[in-house]
Each structure stands twice: as C-alpha cells, then as structure tokens.
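Pair request: fold both.
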Amino acid sequence: MSGEVDFAPEALQGFLDDRFGAAEVFTLDRISGGQSNPTYFVTHGSRDMVLRKQPNGPILRGAHAVDREYRVLAALHPTGVPVPEPVLYHDDPGLLGTPFYLMARVEGRVFADGALSEADPAERHALWMGLADAMAEMHKVRPEAVGLGDFGKPGNYFERQIGRWGRQWEASETEGIPELDRLLDWLKANLPEDDGAVSLAHGDYRMGNVLFHPTEPRVVAILDWELSTLGHPLADLGYCCMAWHTAPDEYGGLLGLDLDAEGLPQEDAFVARYMQQMPDSAPLLPFHEAFALFRFAVIWVGIADRVRQGTAAGHAGTDPAQLAKRFAIRGLEVIDGGHGG
C-alpha cells in the first residue's frame, strides 16, 4: 500500500475476491491530485482498475456525486467517446465508509499545464487539437439517446448558472472582490438568447483532466466527471479557452507565452478545430469565455471559504482568494477586449 488510505484495504480485497474470485495479487495506491474525490489505483489479480469514492465525513448536498460520474461512464463508453470502461458501482457505505465505483485503468499521459511543458514542442499543437476533437465527440452524443435525458435541466443553461454562481458569490464570507461584482453585472446584462443547444457538459473540461495516448496526440480517456450535467456545449468550449486568457501561474494558462515558439496553437485555431466538427454550433462569444472565468473565480472563492473554515487544504504556493480576484480581472479583460488568442 502507498499513500494515505482512508478505508480498510482488507475490506476492499475481500469484496473483490467475492466478486471476481480470490487473487494472489492485490495492491492499492492513492493517486495524488483528484483532491475532491479520493482516487486509487487498484490491482486485483490481472485486473488493473481505478477506484473513486466520496471523501469521508459530512459532505455538501449534491457534492462528490460518484454515482453521477459512474452513470456518465456507463452511458458514454459504448458510444466510442473516450472514457474508461466502468466496472462496478457500490452504493453501500458500510464497506469502505462511502459509496465508490471502479473503472478500468487506462494507460496514457497527463499534462498538468496548458503549456504542455513535459511534451515535445513538435507535438504540442497536435495535442491541443486532440483535446478539441474529444470535446466535439462528447458534445455530439445526444443525451436522450444514451439514457441521460434526465441528467440535468435542459435549456436556459447560462441564465440558471449565472443565478447559481452569483448566489454562491453573494453568500461567501470572502472579502469583497469588486471585479467579480462588475463581471457578474456584465454577464446578467449581456446574456445571449437561449438557442436551445443542449449536450452533456463536462463542467471541468481542460488539459489536465484527460489522458492522452502514450505516443499519439489523441485523448484516450476523459476524466473527472464530477461536475457534469446537461448544459450548453459552448460552456465547455469557453472554459477550455480560459487557457489563452490566463497566465502560467494562474492554473497553468498560456497568456504571455510566445505560442509559435513553444509549438502551441492560437486560440482561433483551437476553436476552429472544434467548430469544424460542430457545424451547427453558434459562435463562441466573449460572453462564454467571461462566464467561464466568472464561474472559475467563484469556485476559487469557495475554496478560500473552505480553507478559512478548516474544511479544505490550501493549494501550495497559491492564495485562493487572490486567484479568484485574478480570474475575475481576466474576465473583465475578455469583455473589454484586452487579451485574446
């Protein structure tokens, strides 16, 4: 065993022995990252799997919804959208302390930052195009065709989301961030008319949440579906495009880098790659990118609140409240035309 294990390993081993037959080999390793839902590599006999569970202790209603994650994997895996193969979901918390699920382990590469610093510069452009391709494949799936027609409320997605995140910001104990107030006011005043587009929205679709093929620039697994729901496809695209509007020290963005020298695409090229596969899509507007930055700023406000309350660990070298302010400023720059790809 390696890493901090928050349940009794022998309980899992016995469960797997009962389910799949006794095995001489059993290993369990906690994966760093995935702070929200504890995640482990599990080997049982010849099976290499990943376990995702809820954190121990009280949780917010609707948070850490591993059942929803598993439901998405089960729905999407037969379609060819790159997701890990689901193995099983166990809803009884009596075994490991919380519900959990198992999925097949997929071999691949994870890149922590948008600059792809660990990748060959000659491959970086193609990796970003692969990220666009996988997003389009995900959005092409009709939710009702795969049993996800009731996975969220269809329609008026941005109006509902602005209301939700706006209320969360207004309820926060974090000191006033006037830039965030201004950004919220702008979004309310510039809400585009709902065009009826509905897709499965990942909610956290970015470079760090996919696995790439070990040697090819294509996504082999989209990970971390905790925030997924029915939503507008341009929400995911706008969120992914935050990379071009945030700096490397702002959660691994690209702003300020010499993109051509680094082998990285311009934002227009990334958006065009996606749009080539989604010909009926409405255009990506500054609104969509500003909304993504607003939402991400409020997420960091929430992290700052929980750190202050002692219910979340701080992120090394980062002040969540300051990051929230910086993302709000980046959102204002988008609507003021200050930066872009």
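--- second member of the pair ---
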Amino acid sequence: MEASPRTFPAGPYSVAEITRLVREVLEGAIPVVWVKGEVSNFTLHTSGHMYFSLKDETAQLRCVMFRSANSKLSFGVENGMSVEARGEITVYERSGQYQLCVFEMIPAGLGSLQLALEQLKKKLSKEGLFDEARKRPLPPYPTRVGVVTSPTGAAVRDIVRIIRKRQPAVEIILRPVRVQGEGAAQEIALAVEEFNRFGDVDVLIVGRGGGSLEDLWAFNAEVVARAIFASRIPVVSAVGHEIDFTVSDLVADVRAPTPSGAAQMVVRDRSDVAREVLGLARGLASGVRNKVSSLRREIERTRSRYAFARAPDIVRQRVQRLDEVSRRLQTSGSRIATERRQLLDSQAGRLRALDPAEVLRRGYAVCRREATGEVLREASASLVRQRVRVELYRGSLRCNVEGVSENEGLA
C-alpha cells in the first residue's frame, strides 16, 4: 500500500498543525480495514464507549469502539480474547496518537453467536438458574396444558396430535408466538409471563422444531431464560431435535428431546393409566382379602382362649352378684326409711307440743292489754278497771279488771 507523494511547505509548524497533517496523511492513505489481534487494556467507559488495544507478538494498536457501534455486539468483550475488528485509522489529536475506530467486531476462530451463548451459560449458571435442586416434577394428571410456540409449525401439530391421542379430555391452550427472528425472544418471554398471570394451566410446553443455531437463537436469549426461571408453572422445554441443546433446556424443569417427546412426557397414555388403575384396584382387593383373613384368624384365636371361653359364666356370676347387691340395697333402704320416718314423727310431736294453739286447746288462755295488745304475764301488770282481752282456744273475751291478786298463780 503506497501513498501518493505530497509536497509540504517549509515550517515551522505548530504541534496541532503537524498532528493534523499526520491525520490527513494516515486517513487518506489507509482505507477501512480488518485487523486481527488480542484484546488488552480493555475499558468500558461510563459513557458506553469501549477503549482497548489489539496486540500481537510484536506490536499493538490503540482502538476505540463507540457506543453506537458496540451496542450491536452479540458477545461480551474481554481481555485476552482474539477478535477481528473492522474500522478506519484515525488520529486523536489531543494526545497525538493514531488509533483504529472500530465499526464492527467478531470473535476470531469462534463464531459470535457461539461465544455469546457460552458467555450467557456461564453467567446464568453462576446465578443458579440451572440448579437441579430448584426444578419441579411435572403434574401426574394435568387437565390443562399451555403451549408456547408458532401456530403454523410442525411442532404445534405434533403436540396437539399426541395429546389428543393419549388423553382426549385434556384441554390445550396455545399462545402463538414467533419462534425466530427479531423480537421472537421477547414474545416467548411475554407468553410465559402471561400464562403465569392468566392461563390457569397445570404445565407449560415451550418450544419449536429444529434448525440452525441462528434459527434457535430466541431460545438461547437471556430474557426467555429468566421468564422460564420465574415461572410458577412447571415448564417443559422442547426445542429442535434431540441433538439440539439450548439455554431454555437448561433452565426448564424438564427438557424434552423434541416437541413430540414433550407431549408424551406431559400427558400419560390413557391405556397406561387404565392398566395402572386396574393394577391398583387388584392390589387393593387383594389387600382387603388378606386383611379380612388375618382378622378372622385373630378372632378364632381369641375365641379359643380360656378367658374368652369363660365369658358367659363370668357374665352370669356378675348378674347374680348384681341381684345380691340390689337386695341388700333394698333391705338397707327400707330400714333407713323406717328409722327416718320414726325420727320425723318424734320431731313433729315435739313441734306440736310447742304450738300455742295446742296449749290453748288444753284450757289455757292468753291475756292482752286491749289498748296495746301487750301480753300480760303478771297480775301487777294490769290496773284495776282497765280493759283486757282474753284469747281462748276458740274466740276471745273482753273484760274489765275488778281486782288484782298478786299471790295466786301456777308458780
């Protein structure tokens, strides 16, 4: 590569002028080129621009890749990585250094998609998205299956055909999405999220038919991996053919080799279920028969024991003892009742003797001062010519006191 000779006027030149001349010479002499080398001194500035060097065994070249260009990279740039960079030679006048302004960059030797895939696997594995301990078993008898795939591909036809054949009563809900191309990954992730919010399904099948790495790339996208990881519904990943393996397969609860295999995993064949139910019924019936026979033998052994054989005699003795105790209770009860009745009569006689009416019946009388009703116990308590009332057993007398004798009385 030869540059056309140029004639420059004699100096002196300022530093800026000579730097500008060097820039014009370099930028005019070297077209856009591809440069291969090893990345070193890599820096990602807060502005989003990348600054690094490309080096080989004998030299190094300063590089800059602005954010508008590096935002299109499908892999992460790291020190020590061999790359091929396409750009143009420029001079950064402030430092007087020439550099390669990179427009495009790809990994050297390893394809950019494959490199991006390996980097994503490493990242997600470190975060625990592939851990087997968090993966859930599939429901044994689902009644509703959600399917996230293309509505026109062979995958959805295989899934529907197999589920209908194995369990016609199972309901299939299809959420159609694009499975390749720009925006496909976002559609798949959104479909998984929607099923978790509204689908009311027991299990999800997420997948498509086979294809190249580029065709299957939507199922290697980080947004899809995180949507599957966040799903509360168990997810079966069914991407491509048996030899294909994607990030979705690593994150999902179960990986199916094909969409057809996913349908077979999710829904059991009704004939298999019928045989299993029949086997369980037979086992249950056999268990019941064995239990009945065991109980019957136990009853016979119990009946043959001495204590069980004497049971009727023991009962008769207990009945006889009960009659004996009953007679004793009746005799004791009669005697106690008689004693209590006699005591009651005695106490009643005493109470009757104390009754004032009984005293009056025997001829005694109660004398009261008529004016106040006060009972007169002594003759001195009454004054001559006062009125008194004498109460008899029947009726009373109103009398005038004619005289008083204090020395006569019962005492």
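Observation on the second member. The mean pLDDT is 84.
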